[in-house]
Write a structure and sequence with these properties.
The protein contains 5 helices and 14 strands. Strand 7 and strand 8 form a beta hairpin.
Length: 209
């Protein structure tokens, strides 16, 4: 559990990031300020730290040796070790936060950036070429356009909306696209990005590694 709340007087206004070994105190607006001293949590804090160190030690021989020598891991080693465990599926971090106040949410988002594999590592897709043979498409923003439509809905105000993931290249109203299932050319009349229920015009959607 890389991010845990410190509960005082029935309230959790401070969250401790065990990846960085830092504590963050939140104000009423949800703004976080690093604190110089980590609040006292007794055996619970030490138990969580030890669990993370044990998990990190198992991700490499070098870190395992350091663990047995009872040497402290640096925050960089902790992050690198947990990231490796996430990528190979041996670790599944659990984060605490408050959805109503957004306390701890940016800790979770930052940790996704640190820990989760990038699209360059895990973003490739297996498609079928014109001959019906499987081909792997790497995530490449400069490559030929390749996209996957994963959902199509009928919007009463806009018309038919197709949601897609761009694996390679970019999709815009000027991009010629061919439906590989039918062989027909598809025309994109408008490109939008979606934020919740809000739709925003976009010049293009591009794949990023």
């Amino acid at each position: 559990m890389p991010c845990v709340p410190h509960i005082e007087n029935g309230q959790a206004n401070t969250y401790i990031n065990l990846l960085e070994y830092k504590a963050y105190k939140y104000d009423a607006k949800g703004n976080a300020t690093p604190t110089a001293i980590i609040p006292e949590m007794g055996d619970r804090f030490e138990g969580l730290r030890e669990a993370i160190k044990e998990a990190v030690a198992e991700t490499s021989e070098e870190l395992m040796e350091k663990f047995f020598m009872e040497e402290e891991f640096t925050p960089e080693e902790i992050i690198t070790g947990v990231s490796q465990g996430v990528k190979d599926g041996s670790l599944c971090p659990v984060f605490c936060g408050d959805a109503s106040t957004t306390f701890g949410i940016e800790q979770f988002l930052n940790s996704i950036t640190w820990l989760a594999p990038s699209a360059a590592d895990k973003g490739s897709e297996t498609a079928v070429d014109v001959n019906g043979d499987p081909v792997e498409i790497a995530c490449n923003e400069q490559g030929a356009t390749a996209a996957i439509i994963f959902k199509t809905v009928a919007d009463p105000f806009v018309g038919k909306l197709s949601y897609f993931k761009v694996v390679s290249g970019k999709v815009s109203t000027d991009t010629p696209l061919v439906n590989m299932r039918t062989g027909n050319q598809e025309r994109i009349t408008k490109v939008l990005t979606v934020r919740g229920k809000k739709q925003e015009d976009a010049a293009a959607v591009q794949g990023h590694p």
